[in-house]
Every structure is written in C-alpha cells, then in structure tokens.
C-alpha cells in the first residue's frame, strides 16, 4: 500500500490535433499548477494516450507527427520531465494488459450507461434521420468495440499507477466513477477484499468548460468543422484577433458575467479570468465597462489577454519542436520511469489473478 499522505496524480490527453484554448485552460494549465504544488513524496504522470485516439480512424503519418507535436506542447506550457513523468501510452503494453483484466470485471450494462457511448448513438440517430448516415441508427454494431470499451482502458491508465487523484473536466466524471467501481470490483474478486486499488478521487479543473466561439451552447472542440470556433495554441496574432472578432456575443452595451443569460459574453470573460487571474470574471466585466463597454471592446481586451499568454508558449513550442533529439530523450526517460512503476503493479496483479 502507498503511504497515506502520498498523492499520485494521473492524467492523459489524446495526440490528435493542435491543443486549443479549451485544452489549455481545462487541462494543460491546471497540470502545471498541480506539478508546481507537489510535495517531495508525490508523483505525477501525464500520458499522451495514442491508443485512445484509435477509437476513430487515423492517418498514420499524421498521428505520428501529432504525438510529437503534443509532447512539445506539454513541455512548452511548463511541464518539466524531471518533476512529472511524461510518456506515450503506446510505449507501455501494461496499459492494455490491465485493461483486459479489468474488462473481465466490467459488465456490458455499465458500459452501455456511459454518456459518451449514448452520445455517439444519439449522434448516429441524428445523422440517420437527416440522411447523412449510411447505416441504420438502431445498429450499434456500426460503432467499434474500442469506442464502447475505452472507458475500461481509461480506468487501467489510472489504476496502473495507483493514482490517488485524477484531474478531470465535468464531462469525464462518469468515467472516473467507473474507474472507482472497477477498483472496488477488482479488490473484491482478486484481493480478498483488501484495498489494493484505492478508488481515485477526482480533481475538477478550476476552469469550467470553455465554449465554442461560434456556438456558445457547445464546448470548444477539435472535432468541430468550423475552424473559427476555436483558438489553437499555434494561431498567429492576426488569426486570434479575427476569430475573437467573429465570436458570438450580444448587442448589450454594458458587459456583465451571466453564464446562463449571456453565454457568449460570459465565455470571453471566463477566458480572461482564467488566463489573467489578477481579477475574476466579474472584475474583467467591470474592466471592459470602464473602457467603454460593448462586445467590440470585450473582444479586443480578450485578444490582448490571450496574446499576452500565448506569445511565450508559442515561442517555446517552436523551439522545442525544432529539437527532435531532446523530444526523443524526454520520451525515453518518461517511458523508463513509467514502465518501472507500471510493471511493479502488474507483477502484483498477475500474482493475485493466478498468473
């Protein structure tokens, strides 16, 4: 058993696409804060989860490049490989081994209730009704097994390192609950009821979901077909200004933070508050009003705040991406450290299940 006071943090991110502002505020920035607040006995693991990316079709050459780009982005935002174990998930076969063992502890009913799975079925239903899908909406077999079972792999990612805490957004809480359930199920079935896997606690990220710039009812997403809906960490200043200029807000002169009635305006205020903590969202609203108010001023102020933060990140990302030798060294070092911890867990798990 791990010492009671020890905190082990695990989190992961898919390598597909350049991280956008929502990724940065919802996960990456929080990772740096967690890293920098660690105590000497704590451990932190960050994985670029390429196996999860395979739940949808991928271009091999693009995926290969994007995984290195994601590693560069993680390092550029302030993650230090000496403080945090950073590694590629596919370098660690122990993830898949534990996922299979946990899959044998997981009921189909639990996976059927996952909101992500139900969401995919709903999207299939919608596409079918609009004539955009070539498969029957009721035919769940049209979706692949990996998409159905990836929450089990996610649980294995977490439990393999005996994680005590997992930083997640609100949309991932259900998956963490599955990891907690599987920890307890494994303990009952294979550990004689002892607490071998401690159910991990969630750390809700301080920044709520960053919304699409073009549709404030949806979160900012890599999958959106509207490129102007998101700000990428690699966007040039002109592109950032243009995307913010086209952001959905409203015509009221006085700016106020009201996430329910004024979602678009509040989204920009939330972005300002998350990037510059000198004032909260209400304080940023007053700051804008003191400068004349209105959506035009709000968008200009938001652009100033975004560019002030992104300039250093972009410069560092460009430098790191140009040093492939350094990236490969970080990946090897991270895999070696992660493998030592993962294999220790799997030796014990194999013994408990009878291998």
TrEMBL record:
GO terms for molecular function: ATP binding; tryptophan-tRNA ligase activity. The keyword Isomerase does not apply. One of its GO terms (cellular component) is mitochondrial matrix. One of its GO terms (biological process) is mitochondrial tryptophanyl-tRNA aminoacylation. Keywords: Aminoacyl-tRNA synthetase, ATP-binding, Ligase, Nucleotide-binding, Protein biosynthesis. It is an enzyme of class 6 (ligase). It comes from the Eukaryota. Its EC number is 6.1.1.2. The keyword ATP-binding applies. Belongs to the class-I aminoacyl-tRNA synthetase family. This is tryptophan--tRNA ligase. It comes from Ceraceosorus bombacis.
